[in-house]
Amino acid sequence: MFNKLKLEVKDLSGKHALVTGGNEGIGYFTALHLARMGSRVTIASRSEQKSIQAVESLKKLSKNDQIDYEMLDLGSIKNVREFAEKFSNKYESLDYCVLNAGCTFINYGTTEDGVERTIQINHLGHMQLSLLLLPIIKKAENPRIIFLSSSMHLNTTLTLPKDLESNSKHFGMIQYPKTKLMNVFTVKELARKLKDTNVLVCAVHPGFVSTEGAYKDAKGSFFGYFLRGLMTFLHLIFARNGEQGAITSAFAVTSDKIISGEYYDSCKIAKYNPQANDLKIAKELWEQSLKLVEINESDINYS
């Protein structure tokens, strides 16, 4: 179903990449691609056990000892803030910020902040993290911020403020594409704000990829079991493996052809949802999202 992608090998010695969700799936293989090119890699996730195992495996496969992990919960405004502060104090600069982590749920639920969890983990947490790390990202020579989106964003639209409200109890398959469209909106708005800097921002679609992260709350629901079984079957037949799925993310980090604000699929600029060009909605989403993650626009230095 997919053409096999090839990744040009670059020398990333002396560079540092942060990969959220780097302990499994696409994030793990993104970290592996970058580590094999010599980059220092920090993976960030909620599971310490999986992170420890991933670091050991990544070091062995890449023959690169500059791999470590940090604990990060994108479903907590407080935790993201604490992570960014700790990371910024520990490292002087950050070359590549790969915002890979994501989830989808069958059942409705909210985070400790009272926000619908798909929205907070997939959209708000990564937006908050990228803005809080911006000071050290800008210190790097040619830094990049990459948001993992999905082609599923093509088949939805945003209605604000409804889609950001915690009582918007959408079924997971409706909510997930909306968060991926929010990623594209965020990329375009952030690229506009950083247009006079050296920071490149882009969104990527990994393709239809077989990973372990989908529908983890499927237990206890007949429909959940059915849907997870169906997706597993489709993955076996049609999906890219994780290593192939991570290539476009790694390409976005390494390629000299990346254009800020664009959306990439299979290592090429791709068609995106035209609603993402609506500047009024973009402004509304940006302002409402900042409010939810408790960041003041006046505190952000984009220059």
UniProtKB/TrEMBL annotation:
Coiled-coil spans in chain: none
InterPro entries according to UniProt: NAD(P)-bd_dom_sf, SDR_fam
Single GO molecular function: oxidoreductase activity
Presence of the UniProt keyword Transit peptide in the record: no
Domain of life: Eukaryota
Keyword Oxidoreductase: yes
Pfam families in UniProt: adh_short (PF00106)
Protein name stated in the entry: Putative short-chain dehydrogenase/reductase SDR
Organism encoding this protein: Conidiobolus coronatus (strain ATCC 28846 / CBS 209.66 / NRRL 28638)
